[in-house]
Amino acid sequence: MIAQPALAQASQKQTTQAQTDAASGRAQAPVTNSEIIVTAQFRSQKLQDTPLAITALDAQLLQARNLNKLSDIGEQAPNVVIKPAGSAYGPATQIFIRGIGQADTNFALEPGVGVYIDDVYYSTVFGSVFDLVDVDRIEILRGPQGTLAGKNSIGGSLKLFSRKPDNEMSGSIEANLGSFDRKGIRGSLNLPIIEDKLAVRLAGVARYSDGYVTSYDYGCLNPGSGVPSVRTSKSCKIGSEGGQEYYGLRGSLRWTPSSDVSVTLTGDVSNDKSEPAASVVTHIESRGRSFLSGTPFDSRFVTAGTYRNYATYDNSGGNYVTRTGQVLTLPAGGISLQRNNDLVDWGLSGVVDWTITDGLSLKSITAYREYHGIFNNDADETPFGMQLVSNDFRHRQFSQELRLSGASFDRHLEWTVGGFYFKSRDITGGRVFFPSNFDTLLYDPAHSRSQSVFAHGTLHVTDRLNVTAGIRYSNERKTYTFNREDPATGAPPPALAAIDGVTGEAKNKRVDYKINADYHLNDDVMVYAQWSTGFRSGGINPRPFYSNQVVSFDPEALDAYELGVKSELFDRALTLNASVFLNKYRNILIQNRNPYVNPNIPIDENPFSPTYNPSAGTAPAYVIANGGTADLKGFEIETRIKPLAGLDIDASLSYLDFKYTSISAAAASGGITLDSRREFMPKWKWNIGVQYEFDLGDHGSLTPRFDVLFQDDIYTGSVSSEFNSISDYTLANAQLTWKSPERDIDVSLAVSNLFNKYYYLNKFETVAASGTALGQPGRPREWQLVVRHRF
Prior knowledge:
Layout: H1 4-27, E1 37-38, E2 45-46, E3 54-58, H2 59-64, E4 80-84, E5 93-97, E6 100-101, E7 113-117, E8 120-122, E9 135-142, E10 156-162, E11 170-178, E12 182-194, E13 198-209, E14 213-216, H3 218-221, E15 237-241, E16 244-258, E17 261-272, E18 280-284, E19 291-292, E20 295-296, E21 308-309, E22 320-321, E23 327-328, E24 341-357, E25 360-378, E26 388-408, E27 413-433, E28 440-460, E29 465-481, E30 484-485, E31 503-520, E32 525-536, E33 539-540, E34 552-553, E35 556-569, E36 574-586, E37 589-594, E38 621-626, E39 628-641, E40 647-663, H4 665-669, E41 684-692, E42 694-695, E43 701-711, E44 714-715, E45 725-726, E46 729-739, E47 745-752, E48 760-766, E49 772-777, E50 782-790
Parallel strand pairs: 7-10, 14-21
Antiparallel strand pairs: 1-2, 3-9, 4-5, 5-6, 7-8, 9-10, 11-12, 11-50, 12-13, 13-16, 14-15, 16-17, 17-24, 18-49, 19-20, 19-22, 22-23, 24-25, 25-26, 26-27, 27-28, 28-29, 28-30, 29-31, 31-32, 32-35, 33-34, 35-36, 36-39, 37-38, 39-40, 40-41, 41-43, 42-43, 43-46, 44-45, 46-47, 47-50, 48-49
């Protein structure tokens, strides 16, 4: 029998030895960059052996850089801009790669960047508010991806891969708190049920934070101004914007009936109850605009440079009187909206992997997804409430993809052939509260269908030379029907009757190609050259006022030429990748203001604004059109350096130069010139991160990290204007992380926007319609404390 003290000594000795081994492992760790495996070409490859412009972030890098939301990822990748959408567009993320993307969330429009989670395509910009919980890795592919993904993606693809169930009992739990009453919890649990046969993995997240832009009652702050107060308490504060409340749960079951077959079933659900995106008024064009109860609509409501606004989400304070004396009557009793930005999202998917023979495999990806969003918008963010919008968006989609992959000729040829089918049904509903005969209910169903076949193969010519080719045929169709109803009468409003019941249709057939050659100069350096084509589907202009604005537009297309190099030098202590490219656009898509339906009506006779007169037949519609041809050239550099044990430096630099080579009549009529720039396209963008891990022996390790990022000035609209211009900015973030000796517990203190820089993420300009320009300020300086435990 062994005495208890002896057992304690033995246990202590084992623990001490484990701690010593862990510390020794840290001290003797090789000064090399870790390898990341990607599946960008339908097969597992090392990132450095993949001849594509691709940024990959694994779970370790995501945690080290404190990246938790999709919008955080854009800071880390060259020529990638990812922003949370402004309040007018609801719960969404705007993603641009090499200047190609989509800001508008209307279902009539296709995204320029394909978003995938576990190879399932997410077809709309609306609803793309994913939390990065239990993510295995993220791949950002730049350039056309038509032959490499389920759906044609003209700008590139953003692919998220979650961790799969396995045969090890494991899990993690994380809790955080911080500024603006931030609090959250996330975790995962892997449960093997039948050894080597059946396993389940669960992951969940809940997070909350208060809004960082405060809405004040202007009438309360300025008694006697003529602006009525709408407050319901003693405080002049009536709300906030930018607050977050998000809940998500995902479960996966992996069944492996044999060594050749695996089936993974995944279900997920999320409920986003966040506030509308933060907005401030950056400009008011008062000429010809209305008065409210005798108070002029002017710069007194501009709040640029602050974290405040006077949005009431209410228009019950009084009638509007234009400068010509016309009274625009309000609905009886006025309207008051809640500050909703809600989204309920759920989906199911099934993935079957079957290894038929040693050189042949089949993959099936079947998925269904549905979401419903209700979001309200005070379009002018002032006490006037001139345009209140209540949106009700619904989306359903089904997709099926089959891939047959093989290796032939003694594995000198690796190939994949496949097919993709997709269909969706969408409803754009809601009500636009406008003090005029444009007050209307919307119910616009849209149907989309896409069918395609593709082939992709790599020929290993020699041990160093590989040639890759791909082809894709796409057949797509989309319809969009406009339904308009007067809330008071149930009939179409007179000013909108011409488009009620009108259906627009767009059909597209397209063949895309890719040719790529890569050559390994030695074991450490690879160069490649590529030509590829891509397109974005045509569609229907989604926001007409009159039937002659129900127009379709042609697909946007491009040819992309690229040269690149990938290298691992000094025994993999330095990773350096670079690419240069030229994109040649045809039928480039623009969002063009088309207010002058009847050019014979003089501006001074339009009573509400210089471009708005329902009785005369003019309205400031925004029309999607083909803008002409253009060239885009640029380069990207990414590097990661480990000059000595514990020190890790990562950086990227990118450049874009866009130039119209011709413009269409539609583009010219809306103010676009050959010198106009593209939206969300910074010329220069760079970031650098530095961290050093201090070994504390038996006390674990301590790692400070410092990040700096720069984004050049951008425009947020097709027409470059002072109202949608965002100045360049530089931001700094800092983080201090302690890890336990066993590496199973870590505690991080992070500060974002360290120097409290005031900057804008987004701008939304409606000067022609409501006379306002809005800005979405970035979050101010915030701190966050995070505790994690892995088991």
